[in-house]
UniProtKB/TrEMBL annotation:
PANTHER family: PROTOPORPHYRINOGEN IX DEHYDROGENASE [MENAQUINONE], PROTOPORPHYRINOGEN IX DEHYDROGENASE [QUINONE]
Protein name, entry field: Protoporphyrinogen oxidase
Domain Flavodoxin: 5-149
SUPFAM superfamilies referenced in this protein's UniProt entry, alphabetically: Flavoproteins (SSF52218)
Source organism: Marivita cryptomonadis
Gene Ontology MF annotations: FMN binding; menaquinone-dependent protoporphyrinogen oxidase activity
Pfam families, sorted: Flavodoxin_5
Length: 178
């Protein structure tokens, strides 16, 4: 299968996830083109059998480069198998309100762009104070302190469950990337 993987990533975790999936799919014999969405240029999606788009949630929304990309290519995306990797810290927990928020972000994306992803994977991201400016560090410390009392607030912490991600991507591919 020939796949396009495009991602938007502010601190780098979605990029890491996208690269991980690319390596896994290539190891399985698939052909993959990986691109940051802001550098994708005029990519012709008709060259691919399926597309995986990844973006992360910041203050309740995905990066605008994802919406821009999806809006301009909604017809192509809707006519091929697609998977949205939605990376957030809400997905690391079990807070029902947080998960309803993720649903809303997704609905907003589809309403704004016209693209309805064939499948959505909510993926836990990372807390990375080493990459935040002073303001972001202050805000994120408070959030993590409330959500994860065991976390050392001074250190980066990755919440991504790689084995679970592998299993879900493998299953999507095995099902024909529907
Ligand atoms: C300023 C800021 C705002 C964030 N807002 C949210 C949010 O509203 N909901 C959420 O679940 N996660 C939020 N996060 C967590 C990110 O989604 C998480 O750190 C993710 O791993 C970032 O992925 P990236 O490195 O690919 O950008 C926020 C993180 C930062 C730094």
């Amino acid at each position: 299968m020939k796949l396009f993987i495009g991602y938007a990533s502010t601190e780098g975790q979605t990029q890491k996830i996208a690269r991980h999936i690319m390596d896994r799919l290539v190891d399985q014999g698939h052909s993959v083109e990986l691109s940051a969405l802001d550098q994708a240029g005029p990519v012709d999606l008709a060259r691919f059998d399926a597309a995986i788009l990844g973006a992360s949630v910041h203050v309740g929304q995905y990066q605008s480069v994802l919406s821009d990309f999806a809006e301009t290519r909604a017809d192509a995306l809707n006519s091929m198998p697609t998977l949205l990797l939605s990376v957030s810290l809400a997905a690391a927990g079990h807070d029902a309100e947080d998960w309803r928020g993720l649903d809303t972000i997704l609905t907003d994306l589809s309403e704004a762009t016209g693209w309805v992803p064939g499948q959505v994977m909510q993926v836990a991201g990372a807390y990375e104070p080493s990459k935040y400016d002073v303001f972001r560090r202050f805000v994120m410390r408070r959030i993590i302190a409330a959500k994860d009392p065991d976390a050392d607030l001074d250190w980066d912490k990755e919440y991504t469950d790689w084995d679970d991600l592998n299993a879900r991507v493998d299953s999507w591919i095995a099902d024909g990337a529907t």
